[in-house]
Amino acid sequence: MFNQGLKGVIATQTEISDIDGEKGKLIYRGYDAKELANNYRFEEVAYLLWYAKLPIEDEVIQLEQKLKQDRVLSPKLKEWICSLPRNMDMMSVLRTTISLLGTNEFQWKPTLDQAIQISALVPSIIAYRYHFMKGTKYNEPLSHLNHIENYLYMLTGEIPSVAITKALEAYMILTLEHGLNASAFSARVTASTESDLVSAMTSAIGTMKGPLHGGAPSGVLDLLDEISVKERADKVIREKLTKGEKLMGFGHRVYKTHDPRSVALKEKLQQSQGQDASLDLAVHVEQVAVRLLEEFKPGRALYTNVEFYAAAIMKSIQLDVELFTPTFTASRIVGWTTHVLEQAEFNTIYRPQAEYIGRLDR
C-alpha cells in the first residue's frame, strides 16, 4: 500500500523514544520527558539517551568533563569557519563545518566518543561563526560553565541568569529527541549504508535546514511583539480569530492534546515568574489564547506547541532569529547521534520501493 511521505509506515524499531500523540506523552528510554526536564540537567538527560540509563554522580561528571574538553575549537577549524562564504546561512555553515570533521578517524562503526565530540562542538561552531559575521569578539569556552550556560556565554559574553539558563536548558532537553522525524530518519538512512557518523550528521543537519522541519518560529515572535503587554492580549487575539487568522504556535500534527514539551516549558517558566517580562508575557498570552480558541473553535482542543515557548525563550535571551534553528540543532544532535548508534547495532540498509506511475508504451 502506498503512503505519501511514508506517513504511518513503521520503518524501524527503537528503544530511544516514544510519542503518544493521543495522550500527549513523550518518553525518553522509559522516562517521561516532561519529568526529566523538570528534574534533571541537560548533561544527565543526554547521558540517558547515549548510555540508556540515568547516570550516577561520577558518570555525569565524566561526561561533563569530556563535553568541556571537546567544545574547544582548533585553530584550523576556526580558519575553516571564517573561510566559508559570507552569504552562507548558519545551518549551511553547521552542515559544512561538521562535514570537515570527516577524516579517517570517523569511520564506520560510530562510537560514543565521536557522538559526544560532535555534540560538544556544535554550540561552539554556532557562536564562533555568529561573532565572525557580526565582527564582534568570540568568547572562548569557560571550563566552569556547564553545556547550556557556556553556550549562552559564548554568544553574549555574559554569565546568564539562572532563570534564562533554566528556561533554555528545559527547551533543549525537550528537543533532544522526537522519534523517527525527518532528520533522524535521514541520519539513519545514511548510517544504514555503513557510512560514518559525520556523514550521517551532515545528512541530518541538511534535513533540519528545511523550513517544514526546523523552521524558526518567527510567526510566534510576531504575535508576541504585536501584543507586547499583557493588557493587549485579549484584544489582539480576539481580532485575529474574528478575521479567521491562524494563531502561530498553537496546534500540532502529532499531538492531539497538550504538547508535553510545551507543558513542561510553561511549568519551568512559572517557577521563575516575575524574573523575566518576556517569559511572563508568553505564559499570559497562552492562557488568553487557549480560552479564546475554545470560544471560537469549540471542541478543537488547540493548545500551544513547543515552538510557542521556544520563541518566547529565544526572545527573552534576545537571540537573533537566524540562531533559532541552529540552537534547536545543538540539542537534537544528541538524538541524531543516538539513532545512528542504535542503527549500527542492528543494521539493515534502508531500501524502500517506489511505485512507477509513468507510461509503459513509449
What does this structure look like?
This protein has 362 residues and is mostly helical. It has 2 domains: 4-215 and 321-345, Citrate Synthase, domain 1 (Orthogonal Bundle), CATH 1.10.580.10; 218-317, Orthogonal Bundle (Cytochrome p450-Terp, domain 2). It is 58% helix and 3% strand. The protein has 17 helices and 3 strands. A 3-stranded antiparallel beta sheet has the order 1-2-3. A hairpin with a 2-residue loop joins strand 2 and strand 3. The longest helix has 23 residues, at 112-134. The mean pLDDT is 91. InterPro entries: Citrate_synth-like_lrg_a-sub, Citrate_synth-like_sm_a-sub, Citrate_synthase, Citrate_synthase_AS, Citrate_synthase_bac-typ, Citrate_synthase_sf. It catalyses: oxaloacetate + acetyl-CoA + H2O = citrate + CoA + H(+).
Question: In a nutshell, what does this entry contain?
Answer:
One of its GO terms (molecular function) is citrate synthase activity. By secondary structure, this protein is mostly helical.
Map the helices and strands.
Elements: E1 17-20, E2 25-28, E3 31-32, H1 33-39, H2 42-51, H3 57-70, H4 75-83, H5 90-99, H6 112-134, H7 147-156, H8 162-174, H9 182-192, H10 197-208, H11 211-214, H12 218-227, H13 233-242, H14 260-271, H15 277-296, H16 306-317, H17 324-345
Antiparallel strand pairs: 1-2, 2-3
Active site: 252, 307
Catalytic activity: oxaloacetate + acetyl-CoA + H2O = citrate + CoA + H(+)
Family: Belongs to the citrate synthase family.
How many helical stretches?
A: 17
Uncertain segments are: none
CATH topology annotation of the largest domain: Citrate Synthase, domain 1
Overall pLDDT: 91
Series of secondary-structure elements, N-terminal to C-terminal: EEEHHHHHHHHHHHHHHHHH
N-to-C CA distance: 27 Å
How many strands in all? Answer: 3
Structural class: mainly alpha
Give the CATH level 1 class of the largest domain: Mainly Alpha
User: So what's the overall shape?
Assistant: globular
Instruction: Quickly give the CATH architecture of the largest domain.
Output: Orthogonal Bundle
The CATH H-level homologous superfamily of the largest domain: Citrate Synthase, domain 1
How much of the polypeptide forms β-strand, as a percent range?
A: under 5%
Give a short account of the largest sheet: 3 strands, antiparallel
Q: What is the percent of helical residues?
A: 55-70%
Number of domains as seen in the coordinates: 2
